[in-house]
Design brief:
With 190 residues, the protein is of the alpha/beta class. It has 2 domains: 135 residues, P-loop containing nucleotide triphosphate hydrolases (Rossmann fold); 34 residues, no CATH class. The protein is built from 5 helices and 11 strands, in the order βαββββαβαβαββββα. The strands form 3 sheets. A 6-stranded parallel beta sheet has the order 5-2-6-7-1-8, sandwiched between helices. Strand 9 and strand 10 form a beta hairpin. Helix 3 packs parallel to helix 4. The protein is elongated.
Length: 190
């Protein structure tokens, strides 16, 4: 039986690199992979997924209004795997559609994303994945103090921002992964 997998971690924990390596493993064996990401993630432009270490691949984007089951006729696609990066930007309904793809079409669905926003609040897509995913794996990364990161701190200058819009697309210029204590104390490190 195919499963819905959720691998989560903070920014910079290699989620995208792992998604791309998984895709490569399937392709190397001659298998077919559908690589998806929500269209709200525009950091690498349209139709491209790129990791911080330089791995990249073409990707198909979907909006929050899209029904994934309507976009692709999974019943007739000869897929061996679906890989979704930045899955936290998906809606609750889209996560349920991914679960349906795994269960009804027997296609493993591997998702990668953040657990929570910069305020430490769960994203809608991540929340639903914690509720219904068959397998949940944390991708760990270290804080500058040595503890495990759990917060994607938003900052400006040398100050951590604790309020504002929940979603602001950015990279290392606006976000830094921290442990909870460093985030709470406003400690961005060196």
């Amino acid at each position: 039986m195919a499963k819905l997998y959720f691998s989560y971690g903070t920014m910079g924990s290699s989620k995208t690199a792992q998604a791309l390596m998984l895709r490569f493993s399937y392709l190397e064996r001659g298998q077919k992979v559908l690589l998806l990401k929500p269209a709200i993630d525009t950091r690498d432009g349209e139709n491209l997924i790129k990791s911080r270490i330089g791995l990249e691949a073409p990707v198909i984007q979907y909006s929050t209004e899209d029904n994934l089951l309507d976009l692709y006729n999974f019943e007739f696609l000869e897929l061996d795997c679906v890989v979704v990066d930045e899955v936290h930007f998906s809606t609750k309904e889209q996560i349920e559609q991914l679960k349906y793809i795994a269960e009804e079409f027997g296609i493993p669905v591997h998702t990668f994303g953040l657990r929570a926003n910069f305020k430490t609040e769960l994203f809608e897509g991540s929340k639903r994945l914690f509720e219904i995913a068959d397998s949940i794996t944390e991708i760990k990364s270290p804080c500058h103090c040595g503890k495990k990161t759990i917060v994607n701190a938003r900052y400006k200058g040398r100050k951590i921002i604790y309020d504002g819009e929940s979603i602001v697309i950015g990279g290392n210029d606006q976000y830094k992964s921290l442990c909870y204590k460093c985030w709470r104390e406003g400690n961005l490190g060196k």
